């Protein structure tokens, strides 16, 4: 299987919400491959971020795919509200839903489907669903808030995802989210990650384009 291209998906959670359209354009000009939208409901994680109307607003100016990450208790109920704007929707294996049914419904809605796990959840929880997904998201911080430090102890899960992909002949992308910087991105890539979510390290960088190039290893 060929080595996947490294993609960088700046997280809009770290942008200036008051200048959303400008921030979308700024990230794209810097070389963003995708734009990552962290949706939080205040129940599954202890924070509230934004909802479908906000994602729709981003989609009105975005020219790259929107990668929507639903950190919510009932993704099966709410994902249809994001399906028009999103190219891909990622849900959590720990949510209150039938995971296989939710993934099938996301695909039927015309979106790519991803599956995520929190740091405390073992990789084995995802194994029954590997054949259904386009993306596997390993959280490298405790989900809920931006700006946290990278949890290096999550790297064995990234390796496990890469080993399972090769062993089973699957094609899902391996995404990491949390504390991704120009320093931690190489560690994630070395262990098998090919899709990097980066928030403050892109939007807060003096030169976002240089930051994205560095994360890719260019």
Keywords:
218 residues; alpha/beta; TIM Barrel; eight-stranded parallel sheet; 8 helices; globular
Oligomer: single chain
What is the residue-mean pLDDT, rounded to a whole number? 95
Task: Provide the CATH architecture.
Answer: Alpha-Beta Barrel
Q: What's the number of helices? A: 8
| Full CATH superfamily name | Aldolase class I
How would you characterize this protein structure?
The chain is of the alpha/beta class and 218 residues long. It has one domain (7-216): Alpha-Beta Barrel (TIM Barrel), CATH 3.20.20.70. It has eight helices and eight strands. The protein has helices spanning 20-29, 52-59, 75-78, 99-108, 155-168, 185-190, 200-203, 208-216; strands at residues 7-10, 35-40, 66-71, 88-92, 112-117, 135-139, 173-177, 195-198. It has an eight-stranded parallel beta sheet with strand order 1-8-7-6-5-4-3-2. Strand 2, helix 2 and strand 3 (66-71) form a beta-alpha-beta unit. The model has no long low-confidence stretch (mean pLDDT 95).
Topology (elements, then pairings):
Layout: E1 7-10, H1 20-29, E2 35-40, H2 52-59, E3 66-71, H3 75-78, E4 88-92, H4 99-108, E5 112-117, E6 135-139, H5 155-168, E7 173-177, H6 185-190, E8 195-198, H7 200-203, H8 208-216
Parallel strand pairs: 1-8, 2-3, 3-4, 4-5, 5-6, 6-7, 7-8
Tell me briefly what this model is.
With 218 residues, the protein is an alpha/beta fold. The protein has helices at 20-29, 52-59, 75-78, 99-108, 155-168, 185-190, 200-203, 208-216, and strands at residues 7-10, 35-40, 66-71, 88-92, 112-117, 135-139, 173-177, 195-198.
């Amino acid at each position: 299987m060929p080595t996947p291209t490294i993609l960088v998906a700046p997280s809009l959670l770290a942008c200036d919400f008051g200048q959303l359209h400008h921030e979308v354009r700024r990230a794209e000009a810097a070389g963003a491959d995708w734009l990552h939208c962290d949706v939080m409901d205040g129940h599954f994680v202890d924070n509230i971020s934004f909802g479908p109307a906000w994602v729709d607003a981003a989609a009105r100016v975005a020219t790259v795919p929107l990668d929507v990450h639903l950190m919510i208790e009932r993704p099966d109920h709410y994902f249809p509200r994001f399906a028009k704007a999103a190219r891909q929707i990622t849900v959590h294996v720990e949510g209150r839903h039938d995971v296989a049914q939710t993934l099938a419904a996301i695909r039927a809605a015309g979106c790519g489907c991803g599956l995520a796990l929190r740091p405390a959840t073992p990789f084995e929880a995802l194994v029954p669903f590997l054949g259904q997904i386009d993306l596997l998201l390993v959280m490298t911080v405790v989900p809920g808030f931006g700006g946290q430090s990278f949890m290096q102890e999550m790297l064995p899960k990234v390796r496990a995802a890469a080993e399972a992909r090769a062993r089973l002949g699957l094609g899902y992308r391996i995404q990491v989210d949390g504390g991704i910087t120009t320093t931690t991105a190489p560690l994630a890539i070395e262990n098998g990650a090919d899709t990097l979510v980066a928030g403050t390290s892109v939007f807060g960088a003096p030169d976002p384009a240089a930051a994205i190039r560095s994360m890719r290893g260019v």
